[in-house]
Structure formats: C-alpha cells, structure tokens
Amino acid sequence: MESKKVLDAKGLACPMPIVKTKKEINELKSGEILEIHATDKGAKNDLAAWSKSSGHELIKHEVDDDNILKFWIRKG
Predict the structure, then answer these.
(1) pTM
(2) Domains of the chain (ranges plus CATH)?
(3) Is 49 designated active site?
(4) Strand pairing of 33-38 and 5-9?
C-alpha cells in the first residue's frame, strides 16, 4: 500500500495522535493515503471513530513486532 505521507505519532498520548492526524490529512488530496505510526493503545479506537465521523476511510491497521500500531487512512 503506497502512502503519500507517514506520520510519526509514537510516544504521544491521546488526543495528540488524532490532532496530528487531522493536521496531516488536511494537507493531502482526496484519495491519498496517510500512514500513521503510534504507540498509544487507545489510538486504534480513536482513529477508527475519527475516520468514520470525518468522512475518511481506515483502510488497514496492524501491530508490528515492536508493538508499533500502524494505520492507513484514505482521505475522503
């Protein structure tokens, strides 16, 4: 999956991953993908709910071997 931009939100607590995601996604064109890396376990539910409520699509999320949460959101 090709991301237009990668946001490093590791080490940030709620609500900062959402705040930074919103700022970064505003800079993308519709249809482009933002990849987010986070360590806050609450980011999974927060980013899913935020994506849905703001008209974007959470395409995929996974946890890597270093317990980094990775999300791919397509701008609506």
Answers:
(1) 0.93
(2) 5-74 (3.30.110.40)
(3) no
(4) parallel
